[in-house]
Write a structure and sequence with these properties.
The chain is mainly α. The chain has one domain. The chain contains twelve helices and four strands. The strands form two sheets. The chain has a two-stranded antiparallel sheet with strand order 1-2. The chain has a two-stranded parallel ribbon with strand order 3-4.
């Protein structure tokens, strides 16, 4: 992969504004969504394995590890079962209520606390488990560690149906490491190179759009300079190569 340096312009002001927006928006969202969060926690407590939260160590800003929090959606021993840390479409380890939470991305909402405390941003590369972080090149690991990981981001939008894409490969672990990781790294590097308050706000809107319309390729129209979609993903992906006829 070609080198994609962090932009040379001074981003101190931009980063400060983004952090201010992170605090304001995550705080407001936690207050506004508190009834929904309480309801989800109540349902989880009395269904499945009665676990409410799932915690996992992820790599954050500066390469430091932090504890990411999600609503529990899978069997407690899932990392030691099936596809390990990969989650596939129709994965049998996912609990019934957990499947609904994952399809709607509601399982990610507790990470608003991670955003509020400064471990994450609303927008950035998704925080990776150490084993997945190690799959990236040294150059990309340095780049990804230069910004806060995000609750959402360009990689999350592009790979909205990653579980379907990976599930169609014969050797899923190899396909993830050699194809998905490579292209996702290019996409995240592009997003970091174009980091700005405008891009931050645009990706928040695209996240909401992708949540409502998962098959949409609107991001391709609004971000025409993205790295080209790899042919290998065409072979396996449930998502088609972006079509100009789709919104």
């Amino acid at each position: 992969m070609s080198s994609t340096p962090i932009p040379s312009r001074d981003l101190t002001l931009q980063d400060g504004l983004i952090r201010m927006l992170d605090v304001l928006l995550s705080g407001a969202a936690l207050i506004a969504l508190s009834p929904l969060l309480a309801l989800i926690a109540l349902v989880l407590r009395f269904t499945g394995e009665h676990e409410v939260l799932y915690r996992q160590r992820r790599i954050g800003l500066g390469g430091r590890e932090f504890e990411l929090v999600k609503f529990a959606t899978m069997l407690k021993d899932s990392p030691n079962l099936g596809a390990g840390l990969l989650t596939l479409k129709d994965d049998p380890r996912v609990l019934p209520f957990g499947r609904l939470l994952r399809e709607t991305k509601l399982n990610e909402l507790p990470q608003l606390v991670n955003v509020l405390t400064g471990d994450m941003s609303l927008i950035g590369p998704r925080p990776l488990a150490p084993v997945h972080f190690a799959m990236y090149t040294s150059e990309l690991r340095t780049l990804l560690s230069a910004v806060r990981p995000g609750l959402s981001g360009l990689g999350s939008i592009v790979f909205r149906s990653e579980d379907e894409i990976v599930a169609r490969a014969q050797d899923r672990q190899a396909f993830y490491a050699n194809v998905v990781v490579r292209y996702k790294g290019q996409v995240e590097a592009w997003a970091i190179a174009h980091r700005s308050v405008r891009m931050y706000l645009l990706l928040i809107l695209l996240t909401l759009w992708a949540t409502m319309f998962p098959a949409s390729q609107l991001y391709r129209r609004l971000l025409p300079g993205l790295p080209p979609w790899p042919a290998e993903l065409d072979t396996h992906a449930a998502l088609d190569e972006p079509r100009s006829t789709r919104p």
